[in-house]
Design brief:
Structural class: alpha/beta
Protein name: Alpha/beta hydrolase
Number of strands: 14
Number of helices: 11
Shape: globular
Keywords: Hydrolase
CATH topology: Rossmann fold
Distance between the termini: 35 Å
GO molecular function: hydrolase activity
Organism: Elstera cyanobacteriorum
Order of helices and strands: HEEEHEHEHEEHEHHEEHEHEHEHE
């Protein structure tokens, strides 16, 4: 396995600290996180055709098939067993780099940018950003890859989409990993998340970015400083218009999520239709995937749970222990019943607390 060691970034102590850090220094720090992934994947895309049947909210005279490019990273041998990684509401494909790098010796790993996120194009209207659209993008992604089926790893929104896709398209999902998501999520939790992501944030200084995304990463478990820096870089982009970094997504995609977050998620009917092996990854302090929901899920034959201590919504799937258990399960081995994942030793955080490291 090609696990990546990510200690405190070498040389970080020589840079300006706190609010004095410049974007040039930030870019230099980021470069240190990119080296393990250089040359390990291909950035690809395909033309997604948004069908008229999903445009019921459009004025009738405007309805027509529209096209945008959807991006993905591809790792490993294209002829190896296919694993598709699907992120959450505000994630990008590069969030999966650590997991994909390790899986690439045995799998063809495709990490997908949802419409309106990362390197993918933006849909024509806010109302186009729906679960039905996400399912359709998966259909077209598999067709583009010329594959009848795949194993899927889905975090949060990615898992909700994967359940809907698997229920609607029997036989196209071989194995399913649900990362801190299940058939039920409380409406109150969805509303809180919607309020957090629907804002348009402008990060004028690196310290603004560290404070905001460091706080939001507190639920991801023992994520290292380098992993956080890597993820925040690809989750944001520079904006000349705003004179700072902004999130790398269409704001309307997050507004559409907020508008839909008035009710609890209820996918129990789709859940009952699933018949593939399923690994449920559960952050033990998650308020999105409740313990009672997990307990009901594992009653289904072929379903086991991996509980992750000191972690909420969602486990980052970037440390050696989590990667090992996911990899082993995808290979058809490992635990036959639910278990608790080991935690790596905690590592110090300096950038994401805006505290200068000791000399």
């Amino acid at each position: 396995m090609a696990l990546v060691e990510t200690p405190l970034i070498p040389g970080a102590e020589v840079f300006s600290w706190g609010d004095a850090m410049t974007w040039e220094e930030y870019e230099l720090l980021v470069r240190g996180t990119l080296a393990p992934f250089d040359g390990q994947f291909e950035l690809r895309s395909f033309a997604y055709r948004h069908p008229v049947r999903l445009q019921g909210h459009w004025p009738e005279h405007q309805r027509k098939e529209t096209r945008i490019q959807l991006a993905y990273t591809q790792w490993g041998d294209p002829d190896a067993p296919l694993v598709i990684c699907l992120g959450g509401i505000a994630n990008t494909a590069r969030r999966w780099d650590y997991l994909a790098l390790d899986l690439a010796d045995r799998f063809n790993v495709v990490c997908f940018d949802w419409p309106g996120r990362g390197m993918s194009g933006w849909l024509a209207k806010e109302g186009d950003y729906t679960l039905d659209t996400n399912v359709e993008t998966l259909v077209q992604l598999l067709d583009h890859l010329d594959r009848p089926s795949a194993s899927i790893i889905g975090s949060s929104l990615g898992g909700s989409t994967a359940m809907a896709f698997a229920a609607q398209h029997p036989g196209r999902v071989e194995r399913l990993v649900l990362n801190d998501i299940g058939p039920y999520m409380p409406a109150e939790r969805r509303r809180r998340r919607a309020q957090a992501v629907a804002h348009h944030y402008i990060f004028k200084r690196p310290s603004d970015l560290f404070r905001r995304l460091g706080a939001s990463a507190k639920n991801e478990g023992p994520v290292t400083e380098a992993e956080l820096l890597h993820n925040t870089y690809f989750q944001t982009q520079w904006s000349d218009e705003h004179g700072g970094r902004v999130y790398r997504h269409d704001p309307r995609a997050l507004q559409a999520y907020a508008a839909s977050a008035t009710d609890s998620i209820d996918q129990w009917a789709e859940w009952q239709a699933l018949d593939m092996p399923i690994l449920v990854i559960h952050g033990l302090v998650s308020d999105a995937l409740l313990l009672e929901t997990v307990q009901e899920m594992v009653q289904k034959p072929g379903v086991i749970a991996m509980h992750v201590p000191e972690t909420g919504h969602t486990p980052a799937l970037s440390d050696a222990y989590q990667i090992h258990f996911v990899r082993t399960w995808l290979l058809g081995a490992g635990a036959s019943g639910s278990f608790t994942c080991l935690l790596p030793p905690p590592t110090p955080r300096h950038l994401f607390t805006a505290a200068k490291p000791a000399a």
